[in-house]
Design brief:
Structural class: mainly beta
Oligomer: single chain
Number of helices: 1
Shape: globular
Length: 328
């Protein structure tokens, strides 16, 4: 298909489950086993491609998408996002909102006003992003981020997400970013508290270059983090391997929802981190390692702050004309 110049989205596939009535629960939205391949959507007012699932009830609803496949599509110059996957569980108590078991492969998201790719479950309670594969996708010249995974919720889990041979280039904000957006709650519990877990995320053979903010980032909302509103969470098994992180403001930025002191956190191996204002920044996260990386030409190679620790043995460091290969 070739969808150009539509008033809203180029392609929209959405399921919606509604339960009517005061104090009702049970609305369920479910989108399963959808394949979108070999399309071009450009210059639409909204998103190029939008797949969504919505649950709606007065009290409690759920929404889920699973088994999606998006391959060899191009979404360019759209007024919203290039390609978006959205779930939304509405109601005074929310309910689970999840995006699961999805393959996004060989797509191009170019010059869109918002994000190249957006993955976003939304609910007042628990949001889940699990078993997502990005393979050989390109996200370039977008007005916000190249690839954004951004649950809107009180509690979130991002688990088993793999970026392989992706290219994020010249995006206004970040290349690849996992970012929590806390939902604002007026009712119980008040003041609200938040939880977040990110586990088994891999960036392999990727390029994140000349993005305006970060090349690759995992971070909570900074205002809520600094005011100690996160009460539980962890980062586990974050792997960056054989990737080129070049010419960003911050090349790699890692921050948990709460300071962590156990387990294997960030593992960086055989990467090129070059010509960033700050090569690597790790905040309040212990148990990190960086080995056999070339960290070259950054204004600052690595900044380990707060409670954070890092074993940075056997890297090649170069700042200006100074270089060394040693344990740090």
């Amino acid at each position: 298909n070739n969808g150009t110049g539509n008033g809203n989205n180029g392609l929209e596939i959405c399921s919606e489950g509604v339960t009517d009535g005061s104090h009702a629960s049970g609305g369920k939205g479910l989108t399963v086993n959808v394949t979108v391949t070999d399309n071009r959507f450009s210059s639409n007012n909204g998103d190029g491609i939008q797949l969504c699932s919505k649950g709606q009830a007065d009290i409690l609803s759920t929404s889920s998408m699973t088994g999606l496949t998006l391959t060899q599509n191009e979404a360019s110059s759209n007024g919203g996002n290039g390609i978006s996957l959205l779930t939304n569980s509405q109601g005074s108590r929310g309910g689970d909102a999840s995006i699961n078991s999805t393959t996004i492969s060989g797509n191009k998201a170019l010059s869109n006003e918002h994000n190249g790719f957006l993955v976003q479950p939304q609910t007042r309670e628990q949001a889940i992003v699990r078993n997502i594969q990005f393979l050989e996708d390109q996200a370039c010249l977008n007005g916000q981020n190249g690839i954004l995974i951004a649950p809107i919720c009180r509690r979130f889990l991002v688990e088993n997400v793999n970026f392989e041979k992706t290219t994020t280039l010249l995006n206004t904000e970040s290349g690849v970013i996992i970012f929590h957006i806390p939902v604002y709650l007026k009712s119980f519990p008040y003041p609200p508290t938040y939880e977040g877990f990110v586990e088994n995320v891999t960036l392999s053979n990727c390029i994140a270059s000349r993005n305006g903010e970060r090349g690759f980032s995992i971070e909570p909302d900074p205002a809520y983090y600094n005011s100690y509103r996160y009460v539980n969470g962890a980062l586990e098994e974050i792997t960056i391997l054989n990737s080129s992180i070049i010419g960003n403001d911050v090349g790699i930025f890692i921050c948990p929802t709460v300071p962590s002191i156990q387990g294997q956190r960030l593992n960086m191996t055989y990467n090129l981190v070059r010509d960033n204002s700050l090569g690597v920044e790790i905040v309040d996260e212990q148990g990190n390692s960086a080995h056999f990386n070339d960290i070259l030409g950054n204004d600052h190679g690595m900044n380990v702050t707060g409670m954070a620790t890092a074993d940075a043995e056997d890297n090649y460091w170069e700042i200006g004309r100074a270089s060394c290969r040693e344990r740090v």
